[in-house]
Each structure stands twice: as C-alpha cells, then as structure tokens.
Design a protein that fits this description.
single chain; alpha+beta; S-adenosylmethionine decarboxylase; Rossmann fold; 2 domains; 5-stranded antiparallel β-sheet; 4-stranded antiparallel β-sheet; elongated
Length: 252
C-alpha cells in the first residue's frame, strides 16, 4: 500500500497493519494528502480498497492500477466519488454491481469515470461480452451492465449505453433541426449506434437524410445487440446509409 501511495505521487507519513486469524489483513497508509486503506478476504479471493486524496497533486487511479496489477486481479469493480457527492444517496442501485468472487471466469469490468462529475460510475460487465474484437478501424466491445443495459465501447472508451443514450441523441438532433427555419436535408457523420438517425426520422418534413459511418462492423453489431437504440432506423427507406469517410463525402 505504501508503494501504491508513492505511485500516485503521495507523501507517505506512516502506515499500520493488522493480521487476522486464521487469515486476512487490514492496513492503512496515512499520507500527507489523506489516506489509503485495504481489507482482504483471502478465503474469497477478494480485497476492498479505499483511496482518499485531497488536492490535485495526487492521482488515486495510479494507486488503483498499481494495486490491481500487484494483486493480479482477474476481476475488479471501481468507483470514483467526488467529495460532497450525493450520487450514491440518490442512486443506491449503483451499488448493485458487487464482486462476490474475484476468480469468476468469463467476467470482466471496465472502469469509466468523469472528473468533477456527480455521474461518475463503474460499468461492471455481466458475463462475457457479446462483442469483443477488432474491426478494420477500432476495437469494438458490447456487453451488458445491470444498471446501464447493453453498453458499447470503442477502443475501450465508453461510447453509448441503452439507459441514457436518449439524453444526447435527442439534444444533438432536435435542437438544430427545430432551430433551423426550414430544414430539408440532414447529414449524420458517424452515429453507428443509430440513435441520431432514429431521432432525425421523427421529423416528417425532411426530404433527404444521409448517414455515413466509417465502420460497417460497428453498425452491424449495434443492429444486433443494441436494437432499442436504432429502433428500426436502419430499415427506414428514408435513410440512406453509406460506409466511408465523412470528410470525403462532404468534399465531393
């Protein structure tokens, strides 16, 4: 734990540990910027750690990565909570993603967090991913989460989830379309999950709707595993779907 603290850039002041019988240990490291602690349950192959830090000179995620690698974790859940956050009070269901055994095969987790955000959560994956392979352009992962439903990652970056996708798909479409005095044509560049196309097709006055995406594999994967997001948009005859480079289409 002291090494984990040092990897985060913290200043270690003191440490204390206690060994339980027949097994297990609890330890705390006092750092100038707050503290790090860990509790272990070897009989379950499980450990829980908390990293509390102050200021902006320490990166607790570096401690997390060091400890994860040191313990050779095969499964892990993590969550970042900003000081003063009421996230867990308002959304206690976020705690449903619990690790019961760190050696469960066929499962993994992907950690996503936003700095200074009250929506920082972990995306715990249930079972093996439905899609987890490289396309011609990027790594594509689709897996199920208890809270967010089916989730899409591109190059290990969370891209879209079934539960909250409407928030930005509605805003990214309806605001510009309704602000335009007489919108007739819409070009969607990207949007492989089909959410933007779904919202655009709600406007009956549009005469031409074109969507161009570089990655056919992403579109086909989303059709199969995220059907609620496109909601039949790809089968709508009003939508012209092209696979290629958006900038080339615009230039031509």
């Amino acid at each position: 734990m002291c090494k984990a603290a040092l990897h985060a850039g913290a200043t270690v002041l003191s440490s204390h540990k206690h060994f339980f019988s027949p097994h297990g240990v609890s330890a705390v490291v006092i750092i100038q910027e707050s503290n790090l602690c860990i509790h272990t349950w070897p009989e379950f192959g499980y450990a829980a750690a908390d990293f509390f830090t102050c200021g902006d000179t320490v990166n607790p995620w570096k401690s997390f990565e060091y400890l994860k690698d040191y313990l050779k974790s095969k499964k892990f859940n993590s969550m970042e909570i900003q000081r003063g956050s009421t996230m867990l009070i308002r959304n206690p269901a976020l705690l449903d993603d619990k690790v019961s055994n760190s050696l469960v095969k066929g499962e993994n987790t992907v950690t996503e967090y936003e700095d200074n955000s009250d929506t920082a959560v972990v995306s715990g994956v249930i079972g093996a991913p439905m899609v987890n392979q490289m396309s011609k352009f990027q790594k594509v992962t689709i897996a199920k989460n208890k809270w967010w439903g089916n989730v899409l990652w591109l190059d290990n970056v969370l891209n879209v989830s079934e539960r909250d996708e409407f928030i930005y798909h509605e805003m990214i479409v309806h605001v510009p379309v309704l602000t335009h005095p007489n919108a007739k044509r819409v070009l969607i560049i990207g949007g492989g999950d089909g959410g933007s196309a779904r919202e655009v097709l709600k406007h009956k006055n549009l005469e031409k709707i074109v969507m161009i995406d570089i990655d056919e594999f992403v579109v086909n994967s989303c059709k199969k595993h995220l059907p609620s997001i496109n909601n039949g948009a790809f089968e709508d005859p009003r939508l012209k779907l092209i696979f290629g480079y958006g900038i080339e289409y615009v230039n031509n």
